[in-house]
Each structure stands twice: as structure tokens, then as C-alpha cells.
Amino acid sequence: MTAAYGKAYISDADFFAEREEVLKTWPTGSDVDLDEAVAYHRTISDDKKFTEALKKAAEEGRVLVQPRAGVALVDEHIELLQKLAAEADLLPTTIDAYTRLNHYEEAQKGIERSVAAGKSLLNGFPAVNHGVKECRRVVEAVSRPLQVRHGTPDARLLAEITLAAGFTSFEGGGISYNIPYAKKAPLELSVKTWQYVDRLCGYYESKGIRINREPFGPLTGSLVPPCVSTSVAILEGLLALEQGVRCVTVGYGQLGNLVQDVAAVISLRELCDEYFRKFGFENYQLTTVLHQWMGGFPEDEAKAFAVISWGGAIAALAKATKVIVKTPHEARGIPTAEANLQGIKATKQIVNMLAEQHLLREDSLQNEVELIKKEVRCILDRVFELGEGDFAKACVRAFASGVLDVPFAPSRFNKGKLMPVRDSSGAVRILDWAGTPATDEVREFHRRCVEERGVSEGRKPSYHMLIDDIYAVSKGRLVGCRR
Amino acid sequence: MSTENVSGPTIVLGVIGSDCHAVGNAILYRVFSEAGFNVVNLGVMVSQDEYIDAAIETNAKAILVSSLYGQGELDCEGLRERCIERGIDDILLYVGGNLVIGKVDYAQTEAKFKKMGYDRVFTPESDLNEVIKLLYADIKERFGE
Which residues of A are catalytic? Predict the structure, then answer.
């Protein structure tokens, strides 16, 4: 079954032909010079390279702390990152929502309006509009490794510009930056354009410049069962490796139940190794990232800090390589630099306090790890059958048939039939599997968990229970109460 | 576009601009439908003209605009003027979510959006049962239904 896979490497001729078209899609594309970019990367010191920081942290068993942040204008963005550098181990550049949809004209208006307003009216940094030189000013002004974080179905030009500017890590993937982030972008196209992004990173790798690639783990961040997010992470990891990427960080969004969350990170790491090797990939650098709770946050800042710290605890106990932090302003959207710093500090305090502690591999943890592994293998077996030797086809067909189905995704190319719900202990189980395959034994386990909660709450598990779960954390609990 | 045949007033629902936050939209659709409205749900990433086209086509009494990603200020401006241009001057405009960048005092945001021509402005914490009551009352007052 695995024999035909792993051979869709984009040839030099195809890559450079496509590249010519990509660079024409906005005027700043003409400033990208790949040879100059490679030479520039050779001058970047190790302490500013994402891959080096991850490698060192993995060796030392440390959890690195990284915020999200991005504003419209270059000088303001630099000022923001310099403030965050005081506490953060790794820095981001979060891209605005117009750029994510390749609406560069609108981003340009946003830049102009932000200049006029004297404050950022965009929810991120429009890197394509700023171009290589301006982005490089950001790279040179900060003392930490920098990653591009976004949500872009077609990120080819964004990758060309930011990597040429000296960014050393690029988040996203053909599934994870389409299904949760777009409505009309065909999956076939996003997977294809992300193969280009991976091929570009692979090109840098072939020149001795290692770029870190990070599939976006949490997907919609709305009660996504671990088996779904893990399957997607493995597929995107394989797609990246196939194009020559050698440094992959796979992610998971905290759901709230300690045992399930730690088990999810452990099984994510172990399953990635299992599948990457199964398909013949060796000599890759694999690390993990835990995203603090991605759902609705409490408005009260003290309560928000509790959610943030609980996420930090999961990252530390699961031995994730890094943690992406939320802020006390999360319920109200984009945070100030000060609020962002507070989130980082709260997280650092807890990950450092837990650095020496290990959760024993007790039965309940081991059982949960085994459960997730069984679920993922069952899903991926079917996905690889559908792909007939081609990872990209496997992804597209899996979503078209509902074998992969992400809850609450805006994309038309996602069925949206799979229904999760929490059990009495807050672990996310599946109420309706829809088209997603599972063994009878696994289905029976989920059914019993959900039924038990229904009995204890005196109501039938339904969509109403799920809605209560969606609101629960912002209202001060994990398991949703009947309204 | 999803609608169900119910006898209540028709309203148009959607998340404006380049915003892909889908969870709240799914919940609003359920809650307003259960409250008896005929909800035309346009989903996420809706342009101003898409709201207006749907409102004209279905003779809607209100447009409910959501925005959670912070760029609401850029996306929402001009919707009232566009409604007037297209001949639906008196349609009710509700807007809610995290409408501006940063944690800004609600009264300030409310004033800004009311000046833009929105009839009511809500936060993510607004009680939906209250919103439903207000919407029925506003429709009755403006259209006598």
C-alpha cells in the first residue's frame, strides 16, 4: 500500500516555471531573489534560527513559549515584537486576514487607513504588501527566531517573500489552512499550492538552509477530536517531507481534559514517527507544539489566566517542544503588547514549575494513547486507500467522502457532519461519526462515554449538549451545563 | 444559502468581510430559527452586497452582521449608505462580535457603529434571548408587524 506514495516531488523545471507566475501576482514579488535569499540565510546566527532553537529545546526537554502578534505597519510591528522578546523564546509574525485571502488591494487600503488612524486597523502584518526589504527590517530588528503564522489557502507568494526576508519557520498546510479558514477555496488547489510552499522550503533545505514547517494542529479549535487533528497533522507532515522539508513541528489544540490532552500529544508524536518511517522518510527533525485552548475565553482576565495556565501545564506535562500562548484579552480579540506579555509570563511560570515533573504512564493515560492510535490508524488506512499512491489525492478524496470531517469548519469542501461532545470528565468524544471510519469497539466506547453523561445530566445527548460545551469554558466550566 | 419555511419575519445572517469564524454563526442560525425567525444564513466571509442582495430577494426586515476578527471597523463602514442606495433604507441593521482591534470600552464601540447607521450593537457576551426580544420589538416598531 505504501509503495507508490512519496514520489510526487515537484521537479526543478515545474517548480521554477510555477515560481515565475507566483512572483507576478503582486508587484513586491519581483524583489524576491532566491540566490540572494540563500546567501542571506547563511549570515543568520544560530540563536535566530527556528530549527536550532527547537533542536536545543528538544534535547534539553524544555518547553519554548511563543505568542501570536502582528500589526499593520512595520515600525509598530517591530516595536511590538521587541516588547514581546523580553519574555518570549520564539516570536511570530501573524498575518492579517486580507493577505490570507490574497486580497492585497484591501490590505493596501488597510495600511493606508492605519497610517491615517495612527493605529492598526488590520488584525495582522500584511507581509506581501510590505515586501522583502521591509520584512527583512523586522527580521534584523528582533533577537529571536521568527515564524510566519497566518491561515492562507494559497500562501505561495507570502512564503516567497517572508522566507527571502529571513524568516526561518512557516506555519500552515493545504488542509489546515484551508478547511478552517476559507469558504470557497477548493481543497485540491490549496493542497497543490502548499506542495509548492513545501517545495520552496525543500529548495532552501537542499542549499543547507533548514526551514521549520508547522502544520496548524488545532484546525477550527472547536472540540476537534484528537483522532481528526492527528490524522491531518500526519498527512501534512508527509506532504512536507515529500517535497524535501526536513524539520516538522506537529501541533495539537488543548481540549481541557488532562489525560486526553497529554495522551493526544504523546500519540501525535509517536504516530508521526510511525507513519513517516512507514513511508520511507528518515533523517527528519520532529517536534511538537501545544496550543492553549482555542475556543471561547472567559471575559474576566483572572479567569482567562486560569485557562492560560492550564494550557501551560498540559504543554509541560506532555513534554511538548513549544507552547503557543493566549492572552487575558482573548475574549475581546486582538491583545495589547502588555496583555500578550502577561499571557507569556503566566505560561512561563507554570511550564518552569512543572519542568521536572512527569505524569506517570498510568493505565488511564496509556488507555487513552492506545485509543487515539487505534482511531487514527483506522482513519488513515481508509485515507491511504482512497489516495491510490498520492498523498494529495488522499487528502482531497478523504474530505470529499467525509472520511475526514472537521467540526465547525467554514469550508464547503468539508462535510461538517461529524458531531463531537464532551463526556462527563470533559474529554471530547464523538456523538455522530458520520462518514469517519472507526471500529465497532471504538464506536461502542464513545457511545458509552456519551450515554453516561446523558444519564448523569438527565438529558439525551444532542446538538444542544454540544452548544453548551462550546460556551462552557467562557462561562467558567469545561463540561457544558444545560441552559 | 439555507432557509426554512417558517411564518416569522425574515432576517439575513452572516459573518462580514474576510472573517472565517464559523462557530458562532452556526449557533446564531440555530437559535434565531428556533425563536421563529425565517433565517437566511449566508455563512462566513460575506460581502456587503451579498447581504443586501439576499435582503432584497427575501424581503428581509433585518440584516444581522457578525464580526469576530477585529477588522469589523473596515468591513462594516458604508453598509447603511449602500442599503439606502439599493432602496432598502429602513431595514434594521444589527451588528455584534469583537468589532474593533483591541479591548476597547463597549460604549465607545457602540457609539462608533451607531454613527455608521447600525440600529443595535452587541458584544460576544450579549444574551441571545435579550437580542431576540429586541429584534421582535424593533421589527414591530419599524414595520408594524
Answer: 100, 171
Residues from A in contact with B at Cβ < 8 Å: 96-98, 100-101, 103, 106, 109-110, 113, 119-123, 151, 180-184, 220, 222, 295-296, 299, 329, 331-336, 339, 408-410, 463, 467, 470
| Model pLDDT for residues A238-284, shown as the tens digit of each residue | 999 999 999 999 999 999 999 999 999 999 999 999 999 999 999 99
Min CA distance, B98 vs chain A (Å)? 6
pLDDT value of position A56: 98
Cα gap A109→A155, rounded to integer Å: 20
CA angle, corner A472, sides to A226 and A66, nearest 5?
55
Domains of chain A: 12-353 (3.20.20.240), 417-483 (3.90.970.10)
Nearest-by-Cβ selection for B22 from A106, A220, A332: A220
Residue B131's SS3 state is: helix
Give the residue, A41 or A6, on which the prediction is more confident.
A41
Query: Is residue A144 classed as helix, strand or coil in its secondary structure?
Result: coil
Other Cβ atoms less than 10 A from the Cβ of B132: the count is: 16
Cα end-to-end distance, chain A, whole Å: 49
- Position A359 scores a pLDDT of 78
Domain ranges in chain B are 10-137
- 3-state SS assignment for residue A463: helix
* Torsion from C-alpha of A49, A47, A291, A232, nearest 10 degrees: 20
CATH architecture for residues B10-137: 3-Layer(aba) Sandwich (3.40)
- The whole-angstrom separation of Cα A107 and Cα A127 is 10
Residues of B in contact with A333 (CB under 8 A): 68-70, 98, 100-103
Q: Mean pLDDT over all residues of chain A?
A: 96
d(CA A246, CA A51): 10
Beta carbons of B20 and A408 less than 8 Å apart: no
Interchain pair B68, A333: CB under 8 A:
yes
Q: Which residue has the cell 524568516?
A: A167
Cα A314 from Cα A265, distance rounded (Å)? 9
At residue A482, the pLDDT reads 77
Q: Please indicate if any CB of chain A lies within 8 Å of the CB of B44.
A: yes
Report how many Cβ contacts below 8 Å link chain A to chain B: 88
pLDDT for position A2 = 67
pLDDT band at A463 (very low <50, low <70, confident <90, very high): confident
Nine-digit cell string for A176? 489546515
pLDDT (tens place) for every residue of chain B, 145 residues total = 444 556 799 999 999 999 999 999 999 999 999 999 999 999 999 999 999 999 999 999 999 999 999 999 999 999 999 999 999 999 999 999 999 988 889 999 999 999 999 999 999 889 999 999 999 999 999 998 7
Compute the nearest-CA separation of A181 from chain B (Å): 6
Cβ-Cβ contacts under 8 Å for B115 (sequence gap 6 or more): none
pLDDT for res B5: 54
pLDDT of the residue at B125: 86
pLDDT recorded at residue A30: 98
CA distance A190 to A153: 5
What's the CA gap between A411 and B22, in Å, rounded? 9
φ, ψ for residue A71, nearest 5 deg:
-130, 175
Of B26, B68, B125, Cβ closest to residue A408: B26
B101·A181 Cβ contact <8 A? no
